[in-house]
Automatic annotation (TrEMBL):
The protein's name in its UniProt record: Gly-Xaa carboxypeptidase
Molecular-function GO terms, alphabetical: metal ion binding; metallocarboxypeptidase activity
Alphabetical keyword list: Carboxypeptidase, Hydrolase, Metal-binding, Protease, Zinc
GO CC annotation terms, alphabetical: fungal-type vacuole lumen
Xref: InterPro entries: ArgE/DapE_CS (IPR001261), Bact_exopeptidase_dim_dom (IPR036264), Pept_M20_carboxypep (IPR017141), Pept_M20A (IPR047177), Peptidase_M20 (IPR002933), Peptidase_M20_dimer (IPR011650)
EC numbers for this chain: 3.4.17.4
Species annotation: Exophiala dermatitidis
Residues at the active site: D118, E185
GO terms of biological process kind: proteolysis involved in protein catabolic process
Upper classification of the organism: Eukaryota, Fungi, Dikarya, Ascomycota, Pezizomycotina
Protein family per UniProt: Belongs to the peptidase M20A family.
UniProt superkingdom: Eukaryota
Sequence ranges assigned to domain Peptidase M20 dimerisation in this UniProt record: 235-381
Binding site for Zn(2+) 1: D151, E186, H493
Length: 523
């Protein structure tokens, strides 16, 4: 594995047209404490509306929990009247919002921003652990507190604020700008009532690869690693699958138990699964490899042994050992396995007739949904044969690899059933050598400083971009603010989620400048 030692960082980019906009907004208005407080209050008001989504919600119109989104969309309309007067605003499936700012050059592909208005539940059991109530939207002059303050209402408010500031300066785009805002990114429905419907509308309008580039949320984009500030836009996402394993056996009275109950058998299966993780691999198409390369070339304090392992021609084993040492790093090179939910048994004097475990996998770049299913089949077939269990693996009964015989008879030991849900292969990988990535990198350096090293990364979670893959090959995921603004680190999806006002203003500046730069450049 020989890596290019001559990689160069893209140059800093600033808008060249309309310097008066830079002087008014970037150099003056954005520095004003009054403006910063106003933007913070906009986000605080959005946080105060509890747009919570839950797993397996029914469709809009059937499930009353969607009703709160009407209040949220009305709040946005009242908060940004100039945006609603100047842009075309469409409501898709009641709660998805589609903003279009038409450009004067119809031959240019549009720039597409994405966000989502829903948030995860705060959890009644943890309410007392919050510094402020989770939907209070408290702004203390430094942080905006509450569920959704970071994920993802901060991005949405920052995008609209940037657009509003450009409108106030009479900015007229040449390239069409589109903002698509879903409302069930956090898991309201497997097939999505929000982003999927938005993507279908955009496909009808712009067609296959009809969008120049797509920018969506991601991790806090500027992180300090190896003594260096890195901007880490994700150019790919891992895949996803939930696997349910069910052991079914005859029941009975607990006074005359067999050697193993359904729960005992399931415990064996769980141990087998956890003891046989997926293989770690660092394949060339994994963005993590590009990050490591650039970290080795540009970081200030990377250990020399690690630097040599990354840049060396024969150090692949050492590099994989480094990645496997830490669970966060390991997740970048391996399909993860998380045993999350176990159910079984009804009463202490009654033998359970079934026991079930739900296992979550985030699928690595080198694997696939089918590879995960094959892994389970080949791992559990010998176990099923040993105990003379029938095996129904994802609706199929077939010969396992390296297994000479397979019993499908149900006896007193019963059956082993595997099912899958939420199946999603890893995303296509956007090219970090593409000119559009250089536009992004140049903007980042212009906003956050030339010393920031921009490198692609792999996102271990999933975003609404999974519905947008056909619209553009260039999809980037990043929340453009410095993680160092919060000494406690990111708090999304947990107690005391909060957004630093400094980070929020960095978002506003980034979107403001990125809109202008992409409007000026051409492929």
């Amino acid at each position: 594995m020989v890596l290019n030692r001559h990689f160069h960082q893209p140059p800093v980019m600033h808008p060249k047209k309309r310097p008066d906009i830079t002087q008014r907004n970037v150099d003056s208005f954005f520095q004003s404490p009054e403006f910063q407080d106003a933007v913070a209050r906009r986000l605080a008001g959005a946080v105060q509306i509890p747009t919570v989504t839950y797993d397996s919600m029914e469709s809009v119109g059937k499930d009353p929990r969607w009703e709160i989104f009407y209040k949220f969309s009305n709040y946005i309309k009242e908060t940004f009247p100039r945006v609603y007067q100047s842009l075309t605003v469409e409501v898709i499936n009641e709660h998805a919002l589609l903003y279009t700012w038409p450009g004067s050059e119809k031959g240019l592909k549009p720039l597409l921003f994405m966000a989502h208005s829903d948030v995860v539940p705060a959890g009644e059991s943890t309410t007392k652990q919050w510094t402020y109530p989770p939907f209070s939207g408290i702004y203390d002059g430094e942080f905006i507190w509450g569920r959704g303050s970071e994920d993802d209402k901060s991005n949405f408010i920052a995008m609209l604020t940037a657009i509003d500031c450009l409108l106030e300066c009479d900015f007229k785009p040449e390239r069409t700008l589109v903002l698509a805002v879903g409302f069930d990114e956090e898991g309201g429905a497997e097939q999505s009532y929000g982003a999927r419907c938005l993507a279908e509308k955009l496909m009808d309008r712009y067609g296959q690869n009809g969008v120049e580039l797509i920018f969506d949320e991601g991790i806090a984009g500027i992180e300090h690693r190896f003594g260096t500030d890195f901007a880490l836009p994700a150019t790919a996402e891992k895949g996803y699958i939930d696997v349910t394993v069910t052991v079914s056996v005859p029941g009975g009275h607990s006074s005359t138990p067999p050697d193993h109950t359904a729960i005992g058998f399931l415990a064996q299966v769980i141990t087998l699964i956890e003891d046989h993780p997926f293989k770690s691999q660092l394949v060339r198409q994994n963005p993590t490899l590009a990050f490591l390369r650039q970290a080795a070339l540009f970081s200030k304090s990377m250990p020399e042994e690690l630097r040599d392992a990354i840049l060396g021609a024969h150090s692949h084993k050492k590099l994989l050992e480094y990645m496997d040492e830490d669970r966060d790093r390991r997740a970048m090179v391996r399909t993860s396995t998380a045993v999350d939910v176990v159910q079984g048994g009804d009463k202490v004097n009654s033998l359970p007739e079934s026991a079930t475990v739900l296992i979550n996998h985030r699928i690595a770049i080198q694997d696939s949904v089918q590879a995960v299913k094959d892994h389970y089949f080949n791992l559990l077939s010998p176990w099923a044969k040993k105990w003379n269990f029938s095996l129904d693996a994802f609706g199929e009964r077939k010969q396992a690899k390296n297994i000479t015989a397979q019993s499908i008879a149900i006896n007193e030991h019963g059956a082993l059933t595997l099912t899958a849900a939420y199946e999603l292969d890893s995303s296509p990988v956007s090219d970090s050598e593409d000119p559009r990535f250089r536009w992004l990198a140049g903007t980042i350096k212009g906003v956050f400083g030339e010393a920031v090293v921009v490198a692609p990364e792999l996102l271990s979670g999933n975003t609404d971009t999974r519905y947008y893959w056909d619209l553009s090959p260039q999809i980037y995921r990043m929340s453009p603010w410095r993680a160092s603004h919060d000494p406690r680190g990111t708090r999304m999806h947990t107690v005391d989620e909060r957004m630093p006002v400094k980070g929020l203003m960095e978002m506003v500046k980034f979107y403001h400048e990125f809109i202008r730069i992409v409007d000026e450049v051409r492929v």
